Amino acid sequence: MIRLTKYAMKGFTKRTFIADRCLLSPALGAAVLLLLVSFGAPVVTVGQTIWTDGTGDWFVGTNWSAGVPSSSTQAKINNGGTAQISVAGATADSLLLGYDTTKDSGTVTVLGSGNLAVNTDLAVGGSGNGVLNVTGAAQVSDDSGEIGYTISSQPGIMGVATVTGPGSAWTSSSYLYVGYGTGSLTITDGATVSDTWGYLAYWPESPGRSSGTVTVDGIGSTWTNLQDLWVGNAGSGVLIISNGGTVTNGAGHVAYQFGADGTVTVDGIGSAWNINGFLYVGEGDDGILNITNGGRVSSNGNFAYVAYNAAAQSAVTVSGVGSLWDNHAGLYIGFSGQGMVSITNGGHVINGTFINVGFNPGANGTISISGSDSVLSTGGVISIGGNISGPGGTGLLHLEDGASINAGGLNVWNTGSLTGSGSIAKTISTFIQGALVPEQTISIEGQLIFDATARTAITVSPEGGGNVDVQSTAELGGQLTVTLSGGPFVPGAQYVLLRAQNGLENTFSSVNIDYQPDPSFTPQVTYDATHVYLYLAPSGSPTPTPTPTPTATPTPTATVTPTPT
Q1: Measured distance CA(346)–CA(394) in Å, rounded
Q2: What confidence tens digit (pLDDT) does each residue in 440-494 have?
Q3: What is the mean pLDDT of residues 373-392?
Q4: Per the domain annotation, does 474 fall within a domain?
Q5: What angle do CA 108, 112, 115 make, to 5 degrees?
Q6: Which residues are within 8 A (CB) of 514 and not within 5 positions of it... i.e. 6 or more apart?
Q7: Cβ pair 456, 480 in contact under 8 A
Q8: Rounded to an integer, what distance in angstroms lies between the CA atom of residue 430 and that of residue 428?
């Protein structure tokens, strides 16, 4: 048996090919071997032993075609049998379970004091089905682990690995692939799995896409990747962290390549995903991140992206009391694609610096916050429909049911909108050709500034309607559109459209009132020192007095132009 080692291009890994396997025919293997020898490439010759028993002890020589495997032996289990390891000392150069044909299957169970050390590849399921069970504080180690190594044209062919119980561990010193073809890994009840790089759904080749699922469930259950983690590298990847499980990695890539899809769910109190690098939700295609019921995600890189690529339609949901996304630096929602962040039912998002919603031209970004305990807090400026320096894509910030925002500033550009009802705490909110559309009350603790091209749209019904409550000053400008909806309206009624506790500066540049003509009243927009009203003047009656036009504040607040991001 000849093992050939190949180092592939970026995005691939060190792979081991077997010369008598379909990936490399014997004739081609001989040709490649001759070529490698001609160039002085290293060639390693190993023996092979094949499992012949049903269910039996790994260490019984008669259970194997050529004796118990050693560290220089390739071991195969393809006959549907199960090798059990309950004491330390099991070794192999490589271990292949259910590897060669679709009719093959093989299982290894490592339990109790059992220990299995594989020098190179541990492949759980190839063309056939493979199963690896690690339980009762048993230990497994290898250089590279593959669960579901080959995409098969036969339905139901896959690799399955389960690591369960305190002290049970599987360690891969380099790569761990879950779904090179179709694969599943479950880590439960305090077990641990570790590697350097982790991949879910690695391969895009026909006859089908790869798929990989990892579940990390229970307090003390951990999956540690020293470097990056790909959830949906080229196929369909699913990562579930639940009931106190923890996953840690470098950068996180959800739906890495075009055509891939990835979903990460962090659910339950104590469940955590710790990312020590950039986070991409929808890097190449559609990605989803769900943080629910007290789950927590911490992303510690310079940036996090939702819908990085133009093809991506991606979403992050943070829902439930105690649910938290803590992003330590900048956040792009809709960097080039269509991205959305939804914060509901008491969920919190804490961000370190800026947030750009709809960053690049053609991008579309949305932040939706619902519920009185739902909060978005950031130390920098939120830019809707662009970035801190200017306009970009389309952006929407929607508040509902008393949701709140705490930010270092809010800029709404010409393709951006602020809608709904809720509160914006202690910040300067600037509308630069942007749109303000209150559906009920939007409360702004800081200063409100409309430039000459801003747009404000308010709908009023007989029972009330949208309004803006500013607890500092409001500098008016741009266009105001008021729509009367429903009816009947009572002549003489007056509605507050905007209140500025510390006074108004200027008036709206233009006012449009959209209503069904009524002979009993004429709608008018009026001002006093702190309010903007809609007054339904009874037919034939003058506008009520006094209605002084606000004067400019003697010392208006200076507008600071931040350094572009």
Answers
A1: 27
A2: 999 999 999 999 999 999 999 999 999 999 999 999 999 999 999 998 999 999 9
A3: 87
A4: no
A5: 60
A6: 481, 482, 483, 484
A7: yes
A8: 6
CA pair distance 465, 106, nearest whole angstrom: 68
CA distance 257 to 489: 57
Please report, in angstroms and rounded to a whole number, the separation of the first and last CA atoms in the chain. Answer: 57
DSSP letter (8 states) at residue 168: -
**273 Rama class: left (phi>0) / alpha (psi -120 to 50) / beta:** beta
- Which of 401, 397, 409 is closest to 434 using CA atoms? 397
Number of Cβ within a 10 Å radius of residue 173: 14
The residues, ordered by sequence, that sit 6+ positions from 377 with a Cβ below 8 Å of its Cβ are 348, 349, 350, 351, 405, 406, 407
Q: What is the pLDDT of residues 510-563, one digit of tens each?
A: 999 999 999 999 999 999 999 999 999 999 765 554 444 444 443 333 333 333
Q: Please state the three-class secondary structure of 422-457 as a single string.
A: EEEECCCEEECCCEEEEEEEEEECCCEEECCCCEEE
Answer yes or no: is 154 within a domain. Answer: yes
Token pair listed for 555: 């010392």
Residue type, 277: G
Distance, CA of 372 to CA of 345 (rounded, Å): 8
Peptide bond into 546 cis (omega under 30): yes
Q: Rounded to an integer, what is the distance from CA 496 to the centroid of its chain? A: 41
Instruction: Please report which confidence band the pLDDT of residue 103 belongs to, taking 50, 70 and 90 as the band edges.
Output: confident
Q: How many domains does the chain have?
A: 1
100-123: buried (b, 16+ CB within 10 Å) or exposed (e) per residue? bebebbbbbbbbbebbbbbbbbbb
The C-alpha atoms of residue 231 and residue 31 are separated, in whole angstroms, by 37
Are residues 97 and 123 in contact, defined by beta-carbon separation less than 8 angstroms? yes
Q: What is the pLDDT of residue 541?
A: 62
pTM of the model: 0.87
Q: Are strands 386-387 and 390-391 parallel, antiparallel or unpaired?
A: antiparallel
CA dist 502 and 48 (Å) reads 84
Burial 518-557 (b: 16+ CB within 10 A, else e): eeebbbbbbbeebbbbbbbbeeeeeeeeeeeebeeeeeee
Q: Distance (Å, rounded) from C-alpha 99 to C-alpha 126?
A: 4
Range of the domain at 276: 2-365
What letter would DSSP give residue 256? Answer: -
DSSP at 34: H
What's the rounded Cα separation, in Å, for the pair 202 and 262?
11
E-assigned strand segments in 471-509: 474-475, 479-484, 494-500, 504-505
The tokens for 355 are: 């947030």
Tell me what the mean pLDDT of segment 127-145 comes to.
Answer: 97
One-letter amino acid at 514 equals: D
Residue with tokens 């996090």: 304
When pLDDT is averaged across residues 136-144 and rounded to a whole number, the result is: 99
**Is residue 50 in a domain?**
yes
Residue 464 neighbours by CB distance under 10 Å = 11
Strands 474-475 and 455-461: unpaired
Q: Is residue 423 in a domain?
A: no
Distance of CA 92 to the CA centre of its chain: 38
Q: Give me the residue label for tokens 């990085």.
A: 308
